[in-house]
Amino acid sequence: MREFLNISKFAPLLLLSCATTQVDDWGTSSQTVPKPPEAAALRNEPNQHGPAKQGIFLWEASKGDAVVYFFGSVHIGDLGMRIPDVVLRALRRSRTVAFEIDPRDESQGERLLEKGTSQDESLEDVISPSDYAKVSKVAAQMGMPMTIVDRLKPWMAGLLFQSVAMMKLGYTPENGIENQILQYAEGRPIVALESIDLQVGVFSSMPLELQREMLAEALLDLGEVEKKTDELMSRWKSGDEAGMEKLVFKDLEDHPELTAPYYESMIFNRNVGMANKVESMMRSGGRHLVVVGTAHLIGSKGVPALLAKSGATVKRLHKGSLLEPELAH
User: Fold this and answer.
1) What's the CA angle centered on 229, arms 46 and 153, to 5 degrees?
2) In a domain, 65, yes or no
3) If you average pLDDT over each of 6-15, 18-27, 256-265, 285-294, which comes out highest?
4) Please, are residues 134 and 219 in contact by the beta-carbon 8 Å criterion?
5) Which residues contact 325 (CB under 8 A, 6 or more apart)?
């Protein structure tokens, strides 16, 4: 199993599918975490860092008098992350904004750690001595107290190490797409398509052996985080859907007998739930902007494809779309 079950390989899937997997409580003491850009500054600054001209992960679904714009996000970003102008145009047309979970909920990190912490046994009790020694070494390097790390479940420890590694590269949730979109919402109602407990349940329901393998490979391949994250960001900025599908679903194609349950719970089952929630929003009419991880929008089982199968008219937009002026309604 070690040939494919590693956090560096799962990093694209996590960054594009689960908004609660970024924990920012540790690992930032060695650098100053950049604050999110001010909304006013973003309005006046050219979008030089947005997706390349050849594409953008933006769709439009319409049914009756309802229109929904879907924007595929990356849950973290650096100082160069900017919202493309076409997405801001979609936002200005929309009366509500929907996210996977409500980004204003300040209890997310606490609840994630609560679910990822064991009250009955220590991390040392459930992983191998060699892996525990590696955990201790990495924790010391990242400035994490072992008194806390030792209470984490293996899956939580793996996610934490991955998150801190990416933060040290300059990627933070504060600079992510959701946080920037929220600055532009300007009083629009915010809709949560899922609960935090649902997202965390994907990890907490993993068998212990799978958790051990994920942590072991996270420790082994922390050096791959930068490479994988750069590859993901490159494909996201260029709007390369085929390349993104290949990156996100590689393990499913290579090892379907082993990874299918993980993908079903992490992506496909959640897509169905999101599509149902969006259909409910569409029944109320009007225009809405939905911002979710890009992994939920691509492929034949993505949310736009599911809505098309249910009778909605779906099309992919580009950077030059929505130029005609129109007010939200």
Assistant:
1) 130
2) yes
3) 285-294
4) yes
5) none
Question: How confident is residue 225, by pLDDT bands cut at 50, 70 and 90?
Answer: confident
Contact 101, 319 (CB under 8 A): no
326 belongs to a structural domain: no
SS3 315: strand
Return the DSSP state at 267: I
Dihedral over alpha carbons 241, 314, 74, 82 (to 10 degrees): 100
pLDDT at position 275 over 70: yes
**Coil, helix or strand for 324?**
coil
Structural domain includes residue 309: yes
Average pLDDT over residues 281-288: 97
List, in sequence order, the alpha helices (H) in 185-282.
Answer: 196-204, 208-220, 225-238, 241-248, 250-254, 256-263, 269-282
Q: Indicate the Cα dihedral angle 195, 226, 158, 129, nearest 10°.
A: 180
Residue 262 has pLDDT above 70, yes or no: yes
Cβ count near 99 (within 10 Å): 24
Residue-number span of the structural domain to which 301 is assigned: 7-316
R_g over Cα of the chain: 20
Six token digits for residue 271: 């897509």
Phi then psi dihedrals of residue 4, to 5 deg:
-135, -20
Strands (E), 141-212: 190-192
Q: How far apart are CA 151 and CA 128, in angstroms?
A: 15
| Domain annotation covers residue 179 | yes
For residue 233, give the DSSP letter. H
For 86, phi then psi, to 5°, come to -65, -30
Total structural domains in the chain?
1
308 in Cβ contact with 61 (< 8 Å): yes
Q: Which two tokens stand for residue 131?
A: 């892996």
Backbone angles phi, psi at 311, to 5 degrees: 110, 0
Mean of pLDDT over the chain: 83
Of the candidates 262, 259, 249, 264, the one whose C-alpha atom is nearest the C-alpha of residue 295 is: 249
- pLDDT of the residue at 161: 92
63 forms bridges with which residues in the sheet?
66
